[in-house]
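## retry 2 of 3
previous attempt timed out at serialization; input unchanged, resubmitting
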Amino acid sequence: MTNLVILGTQWGDEGKGKIVDALAGESHFKAVVRYQGGNNAGHTVVAGGETHAFHLLPSGVLHADKTCVIGNGVVIDPHVLAQELSRLEDRVGLAHARLLISDKAHLILPWHVLRDRISGERIGTTGRGIGPAYGDYVTRRGIRWADTGDRERFRRRLEEEADWNRYQVAALLDFYRVSTGDRNELQIDDALNVDRVWSRCWPDVQAIRGNPAVRSGDAGAFLEDLRSGGASILFEGAQATLLDIAHGTYPFVTSSHPTLGGVYVGTGIRPDPLQVLGVAKAYTTRVGAGPFPTELDDELGEHIRQAGHEYGTTTGRPRRCGWLDLTILRYARRVNGLNELALTKLDVLSNLPALRVASAYRIDGQLRSEFTVDEGELSRAEVQYTDLPGWAGDLGKAKSYLDLPNAARAYIQFIEDEVKVPVTMVSTGPGREQLLRR
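## retry succeeded, writing output
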């Protein structure tokens, strides 16, 4: 039995969906579990020549013999989940799919999106309502998936929380001094009128609950039964280590725990040791505001963006691009207890004359080999780079690790030597077949 966690080691968008899809096909994994985040995350999987973008569904949903689980640590927008299920049914059918939604998962409702649009711009949120939904969860105002199982109970909870949200929105509008024109654009009545919220949400709830591929219940109990029976479980994180609300570059972070600790809180599985596979790009990207010491704000950064198609799966926003930062990977190793690494998008770096890798920072005269999330320290950091040779050719044609150019293999070896974690998988393109294992 091997229970494996796949999580991001940088600022997200590392290609976790592809790695989850590849490993979910292994027969010993009986469940694929999403343990945190909301539809602010996007995982892209290319299978059979088709591109699938998942926002709430676990990336293992394309495999027929798996149960996919949405854990209690996930916040669910019913409208988004209903649309995602419908799209998947239209494209590949759902006769084989099995989805379990935790009764303890909290809902994203229209007033959460409204509050996010008013207040989230300062840190570059996606405006999907994720932060306010987690905020209501923490302050014990949230509505959970279990509340949707009874029509009258759900309606009553909406009425209770709509009243409270009217006060919240009024205070936010006053604080942020939103103009009259912006107030109209925000469609406040649609987000706070109970009848309108009900007419939008209830049909989506019914569509999800009425889907024969979907059931609801105690996800933690289900996973414990699997574990006790000797089955293996694959846990899928969204976002990444430096976006963790506790361990990331606060306040430019998400509202949940993408790191290893989030698995236990977000699923209810007991804290047995887990194998941890960290996913890292061969370079670094991030979306939104916040520090980024190795950012390339020049033609080279734009070249990487175009070559890597670095635009958000969920928002379409252009990602900021920069050199690989080994201080980040060392930090992720410590926080998550990484056992191995999957290196993605190595092909994007092909045909560059030379490469740079951040190996340390010099801060206030001291050399640091591990990343710091302190914004003040990062503003004073002088990046210490190591220069490495580039390589030519199309890595996507490689059939095995040994087919890679010597310089590409030397790049991977350098990462292993510096981070002290073996690179066991290398992605050389978007396709399922473009994943080399060592």
